Amino acid sequence: MNTAELIVDIQTRTPIEARTLVHYPRILVDPCIVPLRATDDKEARAKNRFSVTHLYCPDGLPFGHYARLQIAYLTAEIVKNKSAGEYFISRSIRKFFQICTGLNPGGATHQRFVEVLARVLATTYYFETFATPIAELSRGRGSLAYQDNLGSFGPHPQQVIFQPSEALTQLIAKKAYTPIDLRALQIFRNEDLVLAHDIYIYLCNKLFKLRKPKAFLTWNVLHNNVFTNCRHLNLWQFKQRFRTALETIKAVYPELDSKVLADNDNGLTLMKHVIVPVEKDVSKLTRVM
Predict the structure, then answer these.
(1) Residues 6 or more apart from 58 whose CB is under 8 A from it?
(2) Which domain holds residue 72?
(3) Which residue, 29, 101, 175, 264, shows the most beta carbons closer than 10 Å to its own?
(4) 67 in a domain, yes or no?
């Protein structure tokens, strides 16, 4: 479907009805660490107040739209299966492309999709957590929590098989993921708004977990501590791109109005989202972001 058709579908059917409910690992969105554009960088490191996330891929880090679509879909498979092992994904890589994007692959797009998928599954991650603020990192405080690659990928003659790593499976079993709508990611891909992926997932995560009446996030915190893959932009550029992406996000997330999100020169104010249920069991959700 094209963007207009996807927006209409989002407004008329829930992700459960449309079977587009997927999930995204929180370690990759708070802080956001997956590169926005093609890169030869093999390592990335991002920190917030109490943790540091590290990514490494020997062939270069996964990037862009395809990395986020693939990670979301594969994480949903882990959530659905609830155990380690081999998961059947699709009968071919071409079909997997269609599932993720809603489009038919061309020569160059198919090649890029396969390249990014290989990077996604070769990526090693680990994160450190701290009992004290991140300023104590220089004193050596912290412990290695997980270290493993995201999984392995086996293209059988007529099917695609995914085997997630044990560490990632254990992490997802602790509900360390955010429910999202695959159709929203497909729209961002159609409109070539890579940053919109991360903003959308981040807002879904914050609102899904928000228990206080509201939360305030300054632009400096968003720029330096959350969207770390945007540090190449100055603050003014970041705010402009953030606001541009936000306009598209509001089209795919109808409940994200002024009663939920307030934007001013100092930052964003998130108000408790009454449409998000308290239940953590995503099978009970009637409307997911």
Answers:
(1) 42, 122
(2) 3-284
(3) 29
(4) yes
Do 63 and 37 meet the contact criterion of CB atoms below 8 Å apart?
yes
Question: Does 289 reside within a domain?
Answer: no
Per-residue pLDDT of the chain (289 residues; tens, 9 = 90+): 888 899 899 888 888 899 999 999 888 887 888 999 999 999 988 877 677 888 888 889 999 999 999 999 999 988 988 776 788 888 888 899 999 999 888 878 888 998 998 888 888 888 777 655 444 433 333 222 334 555 555 555 567 788 887 778 887 888 888 899 999 999 999 999 999 999 999 988 888 887 788 888 899 989 988 898 888 899 999 999 998 888 888 888 877 766 577 777 888 888 876 444 333 343 333 333 3
Number of domains in the chain: 1
In order of 27, 37, 248, the CA distances from 46 in angstroms are 10, 17, 26
Q: Are 159 and 90 in contact (CB under 8 A)?
A: yes
